[in-house]
């Protein structure tokens, strides 16, 4: 398979992944998170990432088989010689965009987890406050000052 065709496949898969990351981000910013949708998106992302890795491995094999160095410069030179440097640059730009989208989703997930933990902590404080203390009062009841002496 030609280098140009492999780069086209990589861009197609990266575009699919970017679209899924956009859907994931939309799910994460909703007030009520649809966990089933997130699980389905995770599965779809995993499949695309696997296909992307396979395409990258084939591209890498072609590059090495053609005698180019196994580094970034070799990849760029192979693309230039095959007349598809613009396709390589577009692929790299799309990969950077996917990386940024993935970071945004990771940050949103971290914020969601932090928010959920704070809510759980508050629920535990409220639940524990209703437990009776040794004097028979709950922690929610204010203690009274004994003014009789």
TrEMBL record:
Keyword NADP annotated:
no
Superkingdom: Bacteria
> What is the protein name given in its UniProt record?
Flagellar protein FlgN
Coiled coil region boundaries = 38-65
Recite the UniProt keywords alphabetically: Bacterial flagellum biogenesis, Cell projection, Cilium, Coiled coil, Flagellum
What does the sequence similarity comment in the record state about its family?
A: Belongs to the FlgN family.
Protein source organism? Halomonas litopenaei
Q: InterPro entries given for it?
A: FlgN-like, FlgN-like_sf
User: SUPFAM superfamilies attached here?
Assistant: FlgN-like (SSF140566)
Does the keyword Electron transport belong to this entry? Answer: no
Q: What does this protein do?
A: Required for the efficient initiation of filament assembly.
């Amino acid at each position: 398979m030609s280098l140009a065709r492999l780069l086209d496949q990589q861009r197609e898969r990266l575009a699919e992944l970017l679209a899924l990351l956009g859907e994931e981000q939309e799910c994460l910013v909703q007030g009520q998170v649809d966990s089933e949708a997130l699980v389905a998106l995770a599965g779809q992302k995993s499949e695309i990432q696997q296909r992307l890795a396979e395409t990258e491995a084939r591209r890498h094999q072609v590059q090495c088989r053609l005698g180019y160095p196994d580094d970034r410069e070799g990849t760029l030179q192979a693309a230039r010689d095959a007349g598809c440097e613009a396709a390589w640059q577009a692929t790299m730009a799309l990969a950077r965009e996917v990386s940024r989208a993935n970071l945004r989703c990771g940050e949103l997930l971290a914020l969601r987890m932090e928010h959920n933990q704070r809510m759980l902590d508050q629920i535990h404080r409220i639940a524990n406050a209703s437990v009776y203390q040794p004097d028979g009062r709950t922690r929610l009841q204010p203690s009274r000052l004994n003014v009789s002496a």
